[in-house]
Amino acid sequence: MSWTKKVLRINLTEGTCTPEPLNMEWTEQFLGQRGLATKYLTEEVPPTTDPLSPENTMYMITGPLTGTMASTAGRYSVVTKSPLTGAVACSNSGGFFGNEMKCAGWDMIILEGKSPTPVYISINDDKAE
User: Fold this and answer.
1) Exposure check for the chain: N or C terminus, fewer CB within 10 A?
2) 55 touches 49 (CB < 8 A)
3) Which pTM was predicted?
C-alpha cells in the first residue's frame, strides 16, 4: 500500500480537522512509524512542554506496509510525550484500526489541543469531523 501521503490534524481546542501532506522527505530519513512520529513530535513540541498540557500532541501513525498482507503490517503506533518520564513515549497496537486508518486514506492522525467538553471524532474515508 505504501504511503497515502496524507495527515489528518485534529485540533481539539478549535474543533477542526485539517488534512495536510505527509513530509515525504522525513519518510526517507526516519524509518517506520515510531521514527517518523518521533520526528514530528520533536519538531512540533518543545522539550519543556508539560506532557499533560494542551500543548502536548499525540501522533497515531501507520507504516508503509500497513494495509498489505505483510506479517504484522496491521499494527499502528502512538507517540507522545510521556507524563511519567517527560521523554518520548511510544506504543503500538494490532487489530483493525491501523488497516482501517490506512484504507480511509490517512498515514497519520495528529491530536492536539484540549476540548472544553467531551467530544468524539468521526472519520469516514477522507471526511473527518
Assistant:
1) C
2) yes
3) 0.93
Whole-number Å distance between alpha carbons of 80 and 51: 8
Q: Cell 502536548, residue?
A: 56
Tens place of pLDDT per residue across the chain (129 aa): 589 999 999 999 999 999 999 999 999 999 889 999 999 999 999 999 999 999 999 999 999 988 888 888 889 999 999 999 999 999 999 989 999 999 999 999 999 999 999 999 999 988 888
Give the CATH number of domain 6-128; options: 1.20.120.1200, 2.40.50.140, 1.10.357.10, 3.60.9.10: 3.60.9.10
